[in-house]
Amino acid sequence: MSQELASSPVNGTVYIFINRSGNKVKLLQWQNGGFVLYYKRLESGRFDLPVYDANVQSLGLSYSQLVLLIDGIAITHIDRKKRYELAI
Q: Nearest-CA neighbor of 66 among 34, 35, 33, 26?
């Protein structure tokens, strides 16, 4: 399994699986002692995924992008404003 994912499945990464019709999502994450599975089914509509490279078959999302995706907000054309960052 770790060869297909190109990383360890127990490193805390959240893996997202969406069905073909796009109305069901499963989130799989390792936590202390085992995997946790989150499941959400939409009554209407579908989850809107950003475009990704089909050859890679994966997409990296930040925590905020994941929350927006699960809440049904399209993350394809997000215009992020520049914020101050402390350089260390």
A: 26
